[in-house]
């Protein structure tokens, strides 16, 4: 019996369009790129977009934040991202599989970690490892967690009727 594919979508022009369309639909639906409770005023923030896909969230965010904010896309493949010469100077992309160990130079590097739309590419047993890995990306100062993990809400509204798509990470 053949093994199940690691990535259920195609990696082609049509899938890249799907990713971009989903981005614009989510922004229209929720009304923001980054949850409003997350402070975005820091002049030298470092923001990671995990599973960046085409990089659409980063390229869209770059027009909404000061040029001093560093934006980095992380993904298992960066073939769908724009060429570096087309990007603003504060955007970079890097290959990293979120299911693998976090490279040492990425540990506690980011003030904000954005992640969304991974529901179809993770198996149940992947989720604890992925959450642990993305949490390791968030910076700490003097032993106190200062970073935010921004994740889009998924599923039904909780019993209290309020979605909680962003949370301060406590280590």
Helix and strand layout, with pairings?
Elements: H1 13-30, E1 46-50, H2 56-62, E2 70-75, E3 91-95, E4 112-115, H3 127-136, E5 140-141, E6 144-145, E7 148-151, E8 166-168
Parallel strand pairs: 1-2, 1-4, 2-3, 4-7
Antiparallel strand pairs: 5-6, 7-8
Salient structural properties:
18% strand, alpha/beta, 3 helices, 171 residues, two-stranded antiparallel sheet, single chain, globular, 6-stranded mixed β-sheet, 20% helix
Task: Provide structural commentary.
By secondary structure, the chain is of the alpha/beta class. It is 20% helix and 18% strand. The protein has helices at 13-30, 56-62, 127-136, and strands spanning 46-50, 70-75, 91-95, 112-115, 140-141, 144-145, 148-151, 166-168. The strands form 2 sheets. Strands 3-2-1-4-7-8 form a 6-stranded mixed beta sheet, with helices on one face. A two-stranded antiparallel sheet has the order 5-6. Strand 5 (140-141) and strand 6 (144-145) form a beta hairpin. Mean pLDDT is 81; it is low at 154-160.
Q: Could you write a compact summary of the structure shown?
A:
It is built from three helices and eight strands.
Strand content: 15-25%
Number of distinct beta strands: 8
Biggest sheet: strands, sense, closure? Answer: 6 strands, mixed
Ends: how far apart? 42 Å
Q: Which shape, going by the Cα principal axes?
A: globular
Elements, N to C (H/E): HEHEEEHEEEE
């Amino acid at each position: 019996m053949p093994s199940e594919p690691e990535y259920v979508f195609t990696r082609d022009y049509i899938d890249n369009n799907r990713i971009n369309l989903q981005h614009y639909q989510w922004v229209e639906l929720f009304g923001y790129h980054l949850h409003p409770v997350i402070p975005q005023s820091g002049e030298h923030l470092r923001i990671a977009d995990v599973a960046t896909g085409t990089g659409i969230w980063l390229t869209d965010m770059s027009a909404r934040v000061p040029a001093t904010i560093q934006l980095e896309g992380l993904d298992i493949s960066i073939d769908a991202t724009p060429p570096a010469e087309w990007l603003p100077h504060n955007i970079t992309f890097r290959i990293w599989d979120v299911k693998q160990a976090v490279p040492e130079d990425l540990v506690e590097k980011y003030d904000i970690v954005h992640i969304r739309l991974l529901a179809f590419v993770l198996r149940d047993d992947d989720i604890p490892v992925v959450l642990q890995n993305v949490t390791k990306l968030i910076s700490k100062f003097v032993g106190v967690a200062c970073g935010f993990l921004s994740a889009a809400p998924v599923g039904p509204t909780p019993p209290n009727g309020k979605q909680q798509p962003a949370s301060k990470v406590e280590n």
